[in-house]
Amino acid sequence: MSIYTKMEGTAMEAYRAMIGTLKKKAMQELKLPEGEIIVRSLRPEDLGLTNPDWTFTITANSWNLLAPNYTVADNRFVGVNAVFVAESGEQAVTQLKVTSMGKDKRYWQIQGANFLQDQTEYFDDPITVDQNTPITIMGYAPSGTSDTAFRCIFLGAVAEKKGVLVS
What we know:
This protein is mainly beta. It has a single domain, classed as Nucleoplasmin core domain (Jelly Rolls, Sandwich), CATH 2.60.120. It is built from one helix and ten strands.
C-alpha cells in the first residue's frame, strides 16, 4: 500500500477501479442498467455521521471513532479513496483504521498529510463497502491531543439508483 499526493497515475487508476467496482456491484445487485445508476461524491451521512460535517472530537493515546459502527444503507455502495486533513500545526490523528464485517480491512498512515501542498493523501487501495454492510472508521490520536476537534474529509464516491439522492 502506498499513499500519493496527487490524483494522477496510480492514484487515478485506483480511483477509477473503485468507481468501476461500485457501479458494477450496484448494477448487479440492483438489477439496473448503467444508465439508471448514478455515482456521486461521498457525504458524511453515507458513513453514518448524523450531521453533514466532517469534524470529530478525539481523545489522546487511543483509537477514536470517526465514522460510527454504521451499516451502509440499502441500495447504496460506498467507496473511500482519500483523505483531506484540514488542520494546521500538529495533526491530531496519525492513522486511520477501516473495519468492516468485524475485520480490519485497511490501515492508512496519514501523519503529515496536513503539511502536503493540497493536504490530501490518495490511497492506492481504496475500500468499497456494499449495501447493508457495516463499516467503521477509527483514527489514532497520539499523546497531547485530547478533546481536540479533528477536521478531515473522507473523499470517495457512492453508487446508487438514479433519483435516490440526485437525478
